Amino acid sequence: MIQIQHLEKKFGKLTVLKDVNIRIKRGEVISVIGPSGTGKSTLLRCLNLLEWPTSGSIIVDGEELLSANKVDAPKLRRKMGMVFQSFNLFDHLSVLENVCIGPIKLLAMSKVEATRRAMRLLKMVGMAEKARSMPAELSGGQKQRAAIARCLSMNPEIILFDEPTSALDPTMVSEVLSVIRTLAKQGMTMVIVTHEMSFARRVSTRVLYMDQGVIYEEGSPKEIFDHPRRERTRVFVNSIRDFRYDIHSEDYDLYAFEAELRNFCNKYFLSDETVQTAVQLAEKLLQYIPLSQGEVQLVFRYAEKTGNLALEILMPQELPAVVDEIPADIKAALTTENALHEDIVKRNDKMVRMVKLFIHSEK
Ligand code: ADP
Ligand code: MG
């Protein structure tokens, strides 16, 4: 579907893309990962011609874009939808109008037809109820889902996502990722720049690791995350030392959670004892948090230097404090003083309640 060859992009003297080569087949879901500043956004913007590449070639459906004297950029962008980190909704239009405006203005669709289709798309992303709301009334997760519906309204053949969840509060990441996962299941071709490693692992057919302006390594999620062949990929993949787990309801899948936590601990060679303590503590603590009242995110952080494993539990600020509820026997299992504390903290511009506990030290 798309073939990128020897793509180069310079900004003045700065060479951002050096020699990028990618082939994208229809139906593929490609995750692009890599350190910041390596040109991931620039690559997507070049594909979409929001930036004009310095040299190289981009062939879309057999048509070379860059040699053409007159490229029809609007037509190209209809084929390639783009979803940005910062949503880019029209703030003066309602959600429904945001999703209708493209088809009406650019596809010459009737208002009735555009509205009918927009409602169907909003339903698909779980936003039908908010059709009449203005963007300012929405949460970040809702804004991004509306932006995805707007993108879909143009019937794109491929969607480019540039870190679609990195501006979101942690509790809203998963609702957006779920929508993207649904699109993947429906066979949508997608290129997703993301920092969500476990999501990239689950959703993609192929992972590209980008570093210093080139695709440094590519492979299946298993190859890249479990058996990276090259040094820099290995360092990058192994430097991610958080494990996040979102809980949406009381009926969360305890076994899946345990399995993922074990995987994470095994990856850093934590002892069985630490794994056991972590699982038990998390499980017990969750009994004191009203899980039916909003999303809860668990973040396990492992500091290789000190050998400490800590757990942060993030939940809606409105929930009552939980630390005092926790019985003495759980507290006793925490070895040191100050091992458990609770705070209201700011995360991605939103206040959340955080219970933080120190689980164990390997040293
Ligand atoms: P990533 O998305 O991987 O974090 P970017 O593609 O955003 O990386 O940026 C790669 C490099 O290109 C950075 O050093 C950035 O400062 C530079 N860059 C990006 N856009 C521009 C621009 N419009 N003008 C000048 N430099 C730019
Ligand atoms: Mg970027």
Task: Explain this structure.
With 363 residues, this protein is of the alpha/beta class. Helix content is 34%, strand content 28%. It is built from twelve helices and 15 strands. The strands form three sheets. A six-stranded mixed sheet has the order 6-7-8-3-9-10, sandwiched between helices. Strands 11-12-13-15-14 form a five-stranded antiparallel sheet. Helix 6 links the parallel strand 7 (158-162) and strand 8 (189-193). It starts with a strand and ends with a strand. The structure holds adenosine-5'-diphosphate and magnesium ion (MG). Magnesium ion (MG) binds next to helix 1.
User: How many E-type strands?
Assistant: 15
Gap between N and C termini, in Å? 52 Å
- β content, as a range? 25-35%
Mean pLDDT: 87
In N-to-C order, the SSE pattern is: EEEHEEHEHHHEHEHEEHHEHHEEHEE
Radius of gyration: 23 Å
Describe the sheet with the most strands.
6 strands, mixed
Task: Write out the distinct hetero groups bound to the structure.
Answer: adenosine-5'-diphosphate, magnesium ion
Low-confidence blocks of residues: none
Report helical residue fraction: 25-40%
Basic shape? globular
- Please work out how many helical segments DSSP would assign: 12
Q: Which structural class fits the helix and strand makeup?
A: alpha/beta
* Widest sheet, order of strands: 6-7-8-3-9-10
List keywords for this structure.
363 residues; alpha/beta; 5-stranded antiparallel β-sheet; 15 strands; globular; binds adenosine-5'-diphosphate; binds magnesium ion
